[in-house]
Amino acid sequence: MCLDRLAAASLAIRCRSAATRWPAAGAWQAQREGGRRAGIDRNKAKAHYPGAMAIRATRLLHLLDALRGRRRPVAGAQLATTLGGSLRTLYRDIATLRAQGADILGDPGVGYVLRPGFLLPALNFSEDELEALTLGARWVARQADPELAQAAQRAVARIAATLPGTLRLAIETSGLLASNPKHTPPLPPAPWLPVLRRGIRLEHVLRMEYADAGGKVSQRRIWPFAMAFFGGYGMIAAWCELRGDFRHFRADRVVALADDGERHPSRRHLLIKRWRAATGDGGSDC
Fold it and tell me: Where is the WYL domain (predicted)?
């Protein structure tokens, strides 16, 4: 579950102009290739690209969080540095939030402060959807690494904060629990799990020490693209440079995992497509 995506989706709907529509097939590429020759405003063209809108909505959320954490006015330059953007972008984002109802006081050269009381529009979930989200977060809290478990708990807490009292109570008192049978204990602690998740997300090559069924350890360079969680153990799906093929690695046999920041040459969605075509969602172990 990704908290920022849920909230960003709600904010993006409000930021979208009624006139904004998805361009016809190939139109976006044509705008990029011929924009300069045709005199197309690239900033306006970006408004038609949903990915850019999602990034902007996430940026607005981060700005709100930064302002909520301040009781005194904070300089625009300091906010821009904290958020990793330019002053021009910051001023534009502040104007957007003000237009959406955020009571942001201040001006350039003086600083900005957000008066209490501004919340994002409530995310419209049914009770069934809220129970599904709560159950999923509870399962993650028991099965995943501590970093991801805490992220799931924060996600549910932030969603609950935007809901009316009756729906918030449905989350807090949900009777759907995630537990593990005695014969399927939770995954053992694995400090490399956050490294793996980031490697999958950033499409990085990972160096791995892996023990086979007999305990023999080998050095691998893998291109991870998925991890499945089963009762009591996890399975990593990756392209293995040593074998020159797709392989599955049991998480409980990983001795060490490191990320040097090297990006592998294939995009993750293409690896998944090739993996499914080659193995039928299966694959060979180690």
Answer: 193-256
